[in-house]
Amino acid sequence: MASGVKPRVKVPKKAAAGDVVTIKTLISHKMESGQRKGDDGALIPRSIINRFTADFNGQNVIDVTIEPAVSTNPYFQFEALVPEAGEFKFTWYDDDGSVYETAKKIAIG
Amino acid sequence: MKAIKLLVSTACFMGMAASTHAEEPATLSIEGQAFTIQASAPAHTENLDEVTSGWIYRTKETRALQLDDFDNPGFVFVDKAIDLWNEVDGSEDKSCASCHENVEDFAGLRTTLPRAEDGELVTMEDLVNECRTEQMGAEPWKYSGGKMTGMTALIGLQSRGMLMNVAIDGEAAAFWEKGKELYYTRVGQLDMSCSNCHEDNYDTMIRADHLSQGQTNGFPTYRLKNAKLNSTHARFKGCMKNIRAQPYKVGGDEFKSLELYIASRGQGLSVETPSVRN
Amino acid sequence: MDLTRRQALALGSATLAIASLSGLPAFASLTDEAITALTGGADVTEGGIDLIAPEIAENGNTVPVEVSAPGAVEIALFAAGNPTPAVATFKFGPLAGSRSGSTRIRLAKTQQVVAIAKMEDGSFRKTSATVKVTIGGCGG
User: Fold this and answer.
1) CATH number of the domain at B39-67+167-277, out of 1.20.1560.10, 1.10.8.420, 1.10.760.10, 3.40.50.2000?
2) How many C-beta atoms lie closer than 10 Å to residue B54's C-beta?
3) What does CATH list as the number for C5-131?
4) pTM for the complete prediction?
5) pLDDT tens, residue by residue, A9-53
6) Is B239 a catalytic residue?
7) Most A-contacting residue of C31, C66, C91, C95 (CB-CB within 10 A), to test interface
């Protein structure tokens, strides 16, 4: 696991059934592009988050393929349809095989 | 390649253009809280009429990143610092939280630092490391390292919105005078002082960059340039490298005095920690 | 590599000459290739897709962009002036609240950002925006 990786997500606490809500996500990650050279002149190997997914109660909201051109601490904002109460699950996939997950519940009301 | 770099940077400093105004007059409000980003200059800042936050010199996209604590990437480092706050470290089996129940209790601290204490000028970094070594029996953190800068951002955040108000009299006076002298002393191959850019030429373009007054009320600040929180001393060091000067020591007496003097030039501006800059 | 200033200048102007002879920015073809890989060579029409990006980015390291294309199943972003043009692809699932997304991207220099949407009917839409990336000064 890359060091110091920490996800943050912002999801409304509640919504009406059928509402569209805005979700913001950010994960701390250096997103080493593989294009940079270190002090010794050698290329620093690529090490990025290459995929991000958001699901709600097991159904997909968005699935993002990520390339090294996405900035350090990758940020995504998108909208989700909330048909019922439940839980959002957010997953980030690291080049090194690590998977970072976080979840947020949303109530109907 | 060094020669080329020097040519480019010399051109950069020759390229200060005529005054361009900051984008439309702006008010800064974060999560419903209003910030003072323009104020009458304090009496001791005799060459300025008004003091202004660096936020107003940024483009609207950069400004926008500071308007919402989720959009502000600096907060990911604040979150990490909250974890550190609760993490036991050192021989005494203590965390920050063992002695300081609520980090909120530090509201106001940021506005008064650095401060003189027993003949020394004390910064927030000094206070944190004193706790670590004296109370926790832990190793001190690197003065401008990631952990330290995250922690000073977390503690500084508790004063967000409060007005900068460092003491410059009494025991602090000698440090303040030293900082003032450094501010106006030309150094480096380009023979420039802090004042050349941040007093004589703020609100002008230095090539593609819009010069600010170099205020420190938003520090530590998240910079787009390096995608992390930056301490005041790290920024001073960056400025000195830009003018091809040998930087003073991060955490050393010169930078501490300069930190006090520059903080005093921002008296009356709100703490914006952690701000977002380019 | 230790170059003298003179050598570096000579090298620079030679590169410039080659670039201007070829007539097209060297990286445009890479982007075209990437787009063709996505579309399979199908026609791509303008319109029906929005891309919001700053005219001037204060730092190329973190440039906020937003794409939106009602009816899209996926939207791919390309930075035509980067060493590799692919940036990100948003694929929308059954619970997507809109066919839009925002992120922050790296741009190596002033360039065109291109967005391609694959629509529900299998057609493709395209739009682009030029972002000036500022360098120099002390902020850069």
Assistant:
1) 1.10.760.10
2) 27
3) 2.60.40.2470
4) 0.86
5) 999 999 999 999 999 999 999 998 888 888 888 888 889 999 999
6) yes
7) C95
